[in-house]
Amino acid sequence: MRNIEYKLAIIVRKDLRMGKGKIAAQASHASVIASERIKKINANWWKSWINRGQRKIVLKIESKIDLFKIKEEAEKTGLLTSIVQDSGLTQLEPGTVTCIAIGPAPSELIDKITKELSLL
Question: In angstroms, what is the C-alpha Rg of the chain?
Fold first, then answer.
């Protein structure tokens, strides 16, 4: 039996020029939102991801348009996506889409969608 690896991909917009702390907060929001959503939709994937160390990868993307293209591609393949919108209390306008999460899901499925993206 093959051992399937699971991970969560967090994709952050570069064009917003967020500070390091802001990026960390937005990525944290993405992780929590995605974890809560997948737990309700696919408990088996959630359990496998949790039990194997909650692997995450943080990637960068150039723009909101590119972010939504990746989101659409992921959803077409059946992957769960979670959008993070800023509340507007510090650096950004309220409702600004800062990042998305894809998964948690089997790594090979996520890699097919994110293979062209670079690490943040």
Answer: 14
